[in-house]
Amino acid sequence: MEYKILGETVPCVEINLTAGESMFTQSGGMAWQTNGIQMSTNVKGGVLKGIGRMFAGESLFMATYHADQDSMIAFASTVPGTVKAVNVTDCQGLTIQKGAFLCAQSSVTLETTFTKKVSAGFFGGEGFILQRLSGSGLAFLEIDGDSVEKELASGEVLKVDTGNVVAFDSSVSYEIETVKGLGNIFFGGEGLFLTKLTGPGRVILQTQNFPEFAGRINALAPKTSN
Predict the structure, then answer these.
(1) In what order do the strands lie in the sheet with 108-114?
(2) Side-chain half-sphere CA neighbours of 122 within 13 A
(3) DSSP line for the chain
(4) Which of 87, 115, 173, 206 is deepest in the core (most CB within 10 A)?
C-alpha cells in the first residue's frame, strides 16, 4: 500500500489501494476517492466495542472501504495539525488519546482500553477510556499542531500537559501527578495535573492543546443576552 500526506494547514492522507485492500475510518472520515471502492458501514467489533469507541470520542459506526480494483482514497484531518503514519506491527500495541485515530488498514484492530489507575482516567484530560491499536499494518493519527516524538529509556520520566499527549507504546507506564504548590495551581496556568510517562518506549506528543485553544476562543467570543 502506497500513501502520501498532502497539505500543511489541515492535511490529509491519500492512499493508493490495490485490488483486495481495505481501509477503515470513523463515520464521515473519507474526503475523496476514485472509482472501484465499495463502502460498508457497521459497528466494527460488535455493539460493546462500538459503545466503547463513543466514550473514547469516536463514532459508534465505522466505515470500511474495500478496493475492487486499483483505486485511490483520501482521509482528511478535522483541525489544523499533522497526519502521522504509524506501523502497528512494529510497536506491538499503541495507546492513543480519544480523537487521535484517523484511519487504518483492515488488519489493524482499534479497541477501547481503560487506564491502569482510576486517578489517571478522571484527572488525565484524556477521559477514563483511551484507545489501543494492535494487530498489523499501517494506521494514521490526527495530531493537533505539530508532531513531536520522544524515545524514553528504561525508567526515564517525561511530564506532559495532558492535552499534549497523543500516543505511547504499551511498554510506557501512564499516571497522573498533581502540580505542587498552591501558587502554581492557581496562578501557573497549567491546571492541577500533569501526565507522567515512564519509559521504556516511544511517546508521540502534539504541540497544540486543542481543548485549551477552543476555550480561549470561546472566552473571546461575544456573549449574547436573552
Answers:
(1) 108-114, 129-135, 94-96, 165-169, 201-206, 147-152
(2) 4
(3) -EEEEE-SSS-EEEEEEPTT-EEEEETT-EEEE-SSEEEEEE-TT-HHHHHHHHHTTS-SSEEEEEESSSEEEEEE-SSSEEEEEEEHHHHT-EEE-TT-EEEEETTEEEEEEE-SSHHHHHHSSS-SEEEEEEESSEEEEEEES-EEEEEEPTT-EEEE-GGGEEEEETTSEEEEEEPPSHHHHHHSSS-SEEEEEESSEEEEEES--HHHHHHHHHHHSPPP--
(4) 206
Q: What is the pLDDT of residues 112-171, one digit of tens each?
A: 876 555 454 455 444 446 889 999 999 999 999 999 999 999 999 999 988 899 999 989
Report the DSSP beta bridge partners of residue 16: 2, 72
How far out from the chain centre does Cα 72 lie? 23
Mean pLDDT of the region 204-213: 80
Q: pTM for the full model?
A: 0.81
Burial class (CB in 10 A: 0-12, 13-18, 19+), 118: exposed
Query: Is the pLDDT confidence value at 200 over 80?
Result: yes
Of 137-141, 176-180, 193-197, minimum mean pLDDT range:
176-180
